[in-house]
Design goal:
This protein has three domains: 6-86, Winged helix-like DNA-binding domain superfamily/Winged helix DNA-binding domain (Arc Repressor Mutant, subunit A), CATH 1.10.10.10; 94-162 and 258-293, 3-Layer(aba) Sandwich (D-Maltodextrin-Binding Protein, domain 2); 165-256, Periplasmic binding protein-like II (D-Maltodextrin-Binding Protein, domain 2), CATH 3.40.190. It is 41% helix and 23% strand. The protein is built from ten helices and twelve strands. The strands form three sheets. A five-stranded mixed β-sheet has the order 4-3-5-12-6.
């Protein structure tokens, strides 16, 4: 081993955490081939095998498990240093990495980012549309909009609003079912697949619906909304999915509400451009006509 490329440890840690090249690549915002190449480079540089390549993914070898304890310490130190330097930057220029759920990223944030950029052209917003919880301590993102009832204690931020859940259907579906719909009895319903069944509303649906009522399943709320818009059935959706093409039939229990937070790491509270953007986005989202009209601003 002539020298160790410390940046390879960044990729090693990601694969160790996620157990696959694809998931590691997604978390790092790089290609699958880049992660593959960097892992091979690290193993060649160290002349050891750090992962067993299995059909279900990458699993740490015994030596890999020993190395990861040291590499995580290195990563933590570097992340601390990056946050310290980022926090000391009071210039209104540079890049801000923002992560947000798909619907917010596709529908609500683009016009706000354009408006912000018009005022502050030297600040670039890197938007990551994902329902995954990016690690703010590792600087995988600088700012996060998340649906959570219990934000992590190590992060700071504010609750923007609580989203009610409601039953939505299209005009085409309602034309086939002319009687007023006040519950799901006898209705065709679009439900979640396994990846979303941890949500209380879908647990309730699985317990109360008859199997023949379920006409489709999805792993994404936007896809459920699209199926409902196509007339497939009734979708159970949070109110940020509200759109003119869908009719809001009735509200679901308050216990199903989703609280929307905007979060950042406390070490970054001194970064002028980040605080400026956070305050701008918070104010603009709370003023959005959809959330105003639906009366969600109780946060």
């Amino acid at each position: 081993m002539e020298k160790l490329d410390w940046s390879d440890l960044h990729y090693f840690n990601a694969v160790a955490r996620h157990g696959s090249l694809a998931k590691a690549a997604q978390s790092l915002g790089v290609t699958h081939s880049t992660v593959f190449r960097r892992i091979n480079h690290l193993e060649e540089d160290l002349s050891v095998r750090l992962f067993d390549r299995l059909p279900e993914g990458y699993r740490l070898t015994v030596l890999g498990e020993e190395l990861v304890t040291y590499s995580e310490r290195v990563a933590t130190t570097i992340d601390d240093m990056k946050r310290m330097l980022f926090n000391r930057n009071d210039e209104l220029k540079g890049t801000i990495h923002l992560t947000a759920p798909h619907n917010f990223a596709y529908r609500y944030l683009p016009p706000l980012i354009e408006r912000f950029h018009a005022q502050y052209p030297d600040i670039t917003i890197s938007l990551m549309a994902s329902n995954a919880d990016y690690n703010l301590s590792r600087r995988e993102a600088d700012l996060a909009i998340r649906a959570t009832a219990n934000p992590p204690e190590h992060l700071i931020g504010q609750k923007l609003f609580s989203l009610r859940w409601a039953a939505y259907a299209s005009s085409e579906y309602l034309a086939k079912h002319p009687d007023p719909i006040t519950d799901l009895v006898g209705q065709q319903v679009i439900c979640a697949n396994q990846s979303l069944q941890h949500l209380a509303v879908f647990k309730w649906a699985e317990e109360h619906l008859e199997p023949h009522q379920v006409v489709a399943r999805c792993n994404d709320l936007m896809a459920m909304s699209a199926l409902a818009q196509a007339g497939c059935g009734i979708a159970l959706l949070p109110d940020d999915q509200f759109k003119p093409e869908l009719h809001r039939l009735f509200c679901l229990q308050d216990a199903f509400r989703s609280e929307i937070w905007i979060l950042m790491h406390p070490d970054l509270r001194g970064c002028a451009r980040l605080v400026l953007f956070k305050n701008f986005i918070s104010e603009q989202l709370r003023q959005h006509h959809v959330f105003q009209e639906l009366g969600l601003l109780d946060g």
